[in-house]
Design brief:
Strand content: under 5%
Structural class: mainly alpha
Helix content: over 70%
Shape: flat
Number of helices: 6
Order of helices and strands: HHHHHH
């Protein structure tokens, strides 16, 4: 490829237009993927974490609005810690239960059915996630 004297390769209009088209195509693909739901999957953990009660924030609010003494604050902090551990234990048990049920179903299915079942479970995952609300049937 011949370049004009004194002209850098990146100044070539073909190279510039190719780069522009690559960036444009990347933006279009990214926008399309976000539109079909990738955004929700990528940010699911952020949304779940934002819904989880923050122990320190709750304790601070209790202190200020209820005018708690130091002794009361310490006792409530212990209750909140116990509650969090209990909740996590229940969540772990639910995860184990789901996993066991899924494995038992997979053992019953034929290989082709397993593939379809896995696809169905991936589609239903947002509805089966902890804390999700299914709309009432009409």
């Amino acid at each position: 490829m011949m370049l004009a004297a004194g002209r850098a390769p990146w100044q070539n209009p073909r190279i510039l237009s190719t780069l522009f088209l690559v960036f444009l195509a990347g933006g279009a693909v990214g926008a399309f993927l976000m539109q079909i739901g990738l955004h929700d999957r990528l940010h699911k953990t952020v949304v779940a974490a934002s819904r989880e009660p923050n122990r320190d924030a709750a304790l601070q609010r209790f202190r200020s609005e209820l005018d708690l003494s130091n002794d009361q604050s310490e006792k409530i902090a212990l209750v909140l810690d116990d509650y969090r551990q209990y909740y996590q234990s229940l969540q772990d048990q639910l995860d184990d239960l789901r996993s066991t049920g899924k494995m038992r179903i997979l053992q019953i299915l034929e290989p082709q059915q397993r593939e379809k079942f896995e696809k169905m479970m991936n589609e239903l995952a947002p509805q089966l996630a902890p804390g999700s609300q299914t709309p009432p049937a009409k």
